[in-house]
Amino acid sequence: MDENYQTYLNRAMRLILPETYQTQVQYVQESPKFRPHPEGGREPVPFPGYTIVTPPGNEDSKNATLYENLTDYQQRLGQKLGANLFAPVPPDSFHLTLADLSLGQYL
């Protein structure tokens, strides 16, 4: 991160404002890290690079309250947006990505 934490928070908060969301949602693209699964849903594909993540929520008992809140927010968001606009992931997969280094351009 090339900025202090408060600057990051200010930038991140602007990203979740309704006005920002409405202008940015038209540019959402499908991730190349997943493909359709024959039985429905999506599955990961091999992707060159490294990712550092925290343990998934069901393995992180020290932050159980956080993951419970995220699950609640996800349910509320799904109710508000509906299935046509919102595709929830399983709550037990919630995690924080600390670093994501894609080597695709270098291989």
Account of the 3D structure:
This protein has one domain. With 107 residues, it is of the alpha+beta class. It is built from 3 helices and 4 strands; from the N terminus they run H-H-E-E-E-H-E. The longest helix has 18 residues, at 64-81.
Helix and strand layout, with pairings?
Elements: H1 5-15, H2 18-24, E1 34-36, E2 42-44, E3 49-53, H3 64-81, E4 97-102
Antiparallel strand pairs: 1-2, 3-4
Q: Which short descriptors sum up this protein?
A:
34% helix; two-stranded antiparallel ribbon; alpha+beta; globular
Q: How much of the sequence is in beta strands?
A: 15-25%
Q: Order of strands across the biggest sheet?
A: 1-2
- The overall number of domains is 1
Report the radius of gyration as a whole number of Å: 16 Å
